[in-house]
């Protein structure tokens, strides 16, 4: 399987509309890939908190339309990163705004929406995303030819229990979009490798370049195999990281070193 991680830069002088068109063009250029991945909140910038509400879109808004068409044109599976989603108001009352979510979109090669994942772990503690956006509730997996993908977003990487839940749902490859800050880049690499090793799964983690609201981004998108070996890693700037990997290595690794079979705590409750 060939994956292309589009580590695009978020430039505050570039409008969202122009960046959306540019990202769609980059997706179309990846027609030789099987899977293409974009970063977290690449339309606004992951730390541009003051822009979330103004730039929020409905699920099937302009980014959805542009990415669906790009996936179809390229004939690829596309994890289109995440957008600030404005969900419908619960009451449906005119003029009432619904909640915001940090929502990832995954499209099939025909341009159909295969999955939408609302980020469960919001960053910021008592400010920023943590107070501006609502939390998702359900882990999400997507079946691709040859592998089942578990979807995660940025800060999720720090919570191993989510990845265990994805494994229990059949995930063999984790695809994560992020806007990870440069000052914590060492954690980015460490945690990506840890999630791969402990779950015996591939990790494809795509970050952004540039600066979001004054916060320099780490870049260094990374692909890690089930043994924790780094197959490819980008630099700090805008870059397309393309790597070929064998999804069958997951089953081989789990068979040769069946550590997951020795789990005792946190197993799903069997149906009665």
From TrEMBL:
Signal peptide: none
SUPFAM superfamilies in the cross-refs: Carbon-nitrogen hydrolase
Family the entry assigns: Belongs to the carbon-nitrogen hydrolase superfamily. NIT1/NIT2 family.
InterPro entries in the record: C-N_Hydrolase, C-N_Hydrolase_sf, UPF0012_CS
Organism: Streptomyces achromogenes
Pfam families, alphabetized: CN_hydrolase
Name of this chain's protein: Amidohydrolase
CDD domains to which the protein is assigned, alphabetical: nitrilase_5 (cd07583)
